[in-house]
């Protein structure tokens, strides 16, 4: 009898060990640039408030079974930047501020998780809502001493040879050589705009001609003919799908931009926008649950975002954020077309809900009018700040903070991404899981 019990126990732990050692074939790493815990909380609380509820409307990724907190410091500063944090998430090593996947002294390049798994035969994709040569995506395929070396960074794409690069565009594609010509010479198909399904052995995909190469339109400003992170994610999955497997990094890059602008409404839309892209990965996971791993994290927190203001006591009115129909930057553009206060007042009604869903006192209107008379930009800033204040949202900075950021995971090996970890642990754990 005892021998039988021992045999059963050994068999049980053998099964557990085998399951724990299972290798995911398909790995998604989503990075919400600038997305701290409070950005996630704001999005969920605002979505609940919009539906008349008190609480938090769960996003797809916040329902993942494993979660934790991540430290983000750089090698030479507590408050990191996207280059140093991107390098940590790509290589598993700390580096100095503004450095792209090189050591802190900028003397040696450091191999990225994407390069490692590509060498093992996996397909690899890099997708972002900002320019493909921006700090976070660059950290996965390039090695340069300065994040601002956009021309040099772009030159790494055909050299590194990943299967897919997709983003808003390139900031500096022309120099001694034309980076588009180099991609073509390297065997890449180039697609611009919505286009059709991705085809060819290797693809480079960006926005249509004439669009801003720095970023896709913010979700709050997006039109029907604009590329979205969700569309890019869905088509990237279809393109990369193969029996050997793939690794894909997908960045929601403009959570950070909205937070730098202290634009609370745009933050909500950007977090939800990335969650929509994550939904496409989840659909894939449900088809291949025993072969897929999805990780969602951030590189750093931006804005020192807070829910609750002294001026409102314990109250919030987050549903007001949905009265805003344009980003701070787009509101500046709209107001610049106004010749007088009456025209500006109409813009503020149409795009901010003022004097409609948002109550505006005579004192508020005077503040907006004075700002308008100084400049259209001042008026836009005053309006966006006023709405955030009425909603009960505040910011301590327009820069980054060293606050912990979240990590969520589901799928094969997801349990390894829980508790308190450092950002360098994430690619190291992925590397271990994806080893043959």
From TrEMBL:
GO terms for molecular function: alkaline phosphatase activity; metal ion binding. Keywords: Hydrolase, Magnesium, Metal-binding, Phosphoprotein, Zinc. It is an enzyme of class 3 (hydrolase). Mg(2+) binds at residues 33, 134, 136, 251. Its EC number is 3.1.3.1. Zn(2+) binds at residues 33, 256, 260, 299-300, 400. Transmembrane segments: none annotated. Signal peptide: none annotated. The active site is at residue 82. SMART domains: alkPPc (SM00098). PANTHER family: ALKALINE PHOSPHATASE (PTHR11596:SF5). Belongs to the alkaline phosphatase family. This is Alkaline phosphatase. It comes from Mucinivorans hirudinis.
């Amino acid at each position: 009898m005892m021998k039988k019990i021992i045999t059963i126990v050994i068999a049980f732990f053998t099964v557990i060990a085998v399951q724990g050692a299972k290798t995911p074939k398909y790995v998604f790493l989503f990075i919400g640039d600038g997305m701290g815990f409070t950005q996630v909380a704001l999005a969920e609380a605002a979505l609940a408030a919009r539906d008349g509820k008190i609480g938090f409307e769960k996003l797809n990724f916040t329902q993942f079974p494993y979660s934790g907190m991540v430290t983000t410091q750089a090698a030479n500063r507590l408050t990191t930047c996207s280059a140093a944090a991107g390098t940590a998430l790509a290589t598993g090593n700390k580096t100095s501020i503004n450095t792209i996947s090189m050591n802190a002294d900028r003397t040696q390049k450091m191999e990225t998780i994407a390069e490692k798994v590509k060498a093992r035969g996996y397909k690899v994709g890099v997708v972002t809502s900002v320019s493909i040569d921006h700090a976070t995506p660059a950290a996965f395929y390039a090695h340069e001493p300065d994040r601002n070396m956009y021309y040099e960074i772009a030159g790494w794409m055909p050299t590194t040879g990943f299967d897919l690069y997709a983003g808003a565009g390139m900031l500096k594609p022309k120099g001694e050589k034309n980076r588009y010509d180099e991609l073509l010479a390297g065997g890449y198909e180039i697609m611009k705009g919505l286009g059709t399904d991705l085809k060819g052995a290797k693809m480079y995909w960006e926005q249509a001609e004439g669009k801003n190469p720095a970023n896709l339109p913010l979700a709050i400003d997006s039109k029907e003919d604009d590329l979205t992170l969700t569309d890019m994610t869905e088509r990237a999955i279809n393109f990369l799908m193969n029996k050997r497997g793939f690794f894909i990094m997908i960045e929601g890059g403009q959570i950070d931009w909205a937070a730098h602008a202290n634009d609370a409404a745009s933050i909500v839309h950007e977090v939800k926008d990335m969650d929509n892209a994550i939904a496409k990965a989840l659909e894939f996971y449900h088809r291949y649950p025993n072969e897929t791993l999805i990780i969602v994290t951030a590189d750093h927190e931006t804005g020192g975002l807070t829910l609750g203001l002294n001026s409102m006591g314990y109250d919030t009115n987050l549903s007001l954020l949905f009265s805003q129909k344009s980003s701070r930057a787009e509101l500046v553009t709209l107001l610049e077309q106004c010749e007088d206060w009456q025209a500006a007042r109409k813009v503020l009604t149409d795009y901010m809900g003022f004097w409609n869903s948002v109550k505006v006192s005579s004192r508020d209107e005077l503040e907006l009018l004075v700002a308008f008379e100084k400049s259209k930009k001042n008026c836009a800033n005053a309006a966006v700040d006023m709405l955030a204040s009425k909603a009960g949202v505040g910011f301590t900075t327009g820069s980054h903070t060293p606050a912990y950021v979240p990590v969520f995971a589901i799928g094969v090996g997801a349990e390894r991404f829980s508790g308190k970890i450092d950002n360098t642990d994430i690619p190291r754990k992925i590397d271990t899981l994806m080893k043959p």
